[in-house]
Amino acid sequence: MKRIVSSVAALALAVGLASAASAEPFNGPYVGVQAGWNQDKLGTPSTPLGNVAIDRSQDSFSGGVFAGYDYKVSPRFVIGAEAGVQFGNDDSVARDTGAALVTVDPKRSFDLTARAGYLVTDNTLLYARGGYTNARVRTSVEDAAGIRSASANRDGWLVGGGLEHAISDNVSARAEYRYSDLDEGNGKFDRHQALFGIAYRF
């Protein structure tokens, strides 16, 4: 009986120590969800249907998931990498030119970014982000000849920054602004986002 009690106590102590070691904020793997405001601003971007004159912007809701890994390089500095997928709602940008109705409809986007931050307190990280982003976009043109549609991937780059706070040992919340350039060197296709997220840290 003593042997069983001792084994249970040793196991409980080991689990406790492991949890304490892995519970340090901003050091290790995490997954999360995020949502917020999205604005796409288009000029005359190139598409599979040719250059389309939109010259409009559209505000919409965006939501998605992310996963990443943080590494504390010193007591105050953190670096990390993250991948995310975003989906928009009611985010089509359209213009009636008189001769045609042109619609650009972003379907989804994903990003691969690095971030670096400074711990202003033990539980609050101020950070900057930058990296690659890609958006799947469907373009439609309706004119006297009928309706033509085509989809394509747009490559771009992303920069941003935000503030993340550890609510508990395993949960953190963040607020972040992002700017994405999806021009591909032709026309204008800019994206602005203000996102709020919750992460679970392992």
Could you describe the 3D structure shown?
- The chain is mostly beta strands and 202 residues long.
- It has a single domain (26-201), classed as Porin (Beta Barrel).
- The chain has one helix at 2-22; strands at 28-42, 46-47, 50-51, 56-72, 77-89, 93-96, 101-121, 124-143, 146-166, 171-181, 189-201.
- An 8-stranded antiparallel β-barrel has the order 1-4-5-7-8-9-10-11.
- The radius of gyration is 22 Å and the shape is elongated.
Provide the gyration radius in Å: 22 Å
Portion of residues in beta strands equals: over 45%
Number of DSSP E strands = 11
General shape: elongated
List keywords for this structure.
mainly beta; Porin; eight-stranded antiparallel beta barrel; 1 helix; 69% strand
What order do the helices and strands come in, and which of them pair?
Elements: H1 2-22, E1 28-42, E2 46-47, E3 50-51, E4 56-72, E5 77-89, E6 93-96, E7 101-121, E8 124-143, E9 146-166, E10 171-181, E11 189-201
Antiparallel strand pairs: 1-4, 1-11, 2-3, 4-5, 5-7, 6-7, 7-8, 8-9, 9-10, 10-11
Summarize the structure.
By secondary structure, this protein is mainly beta. It has one helix at residues 2-22; strands at residues 28-42, 46-47, 50-51, 56-72, 77-89, 93-96, 101-121, 124-143, 146-166, 171-181, 189-201. The chain contains one helix and eleven strands, in the order H-E-E-E-E-E-E-E-E-E-E-E.
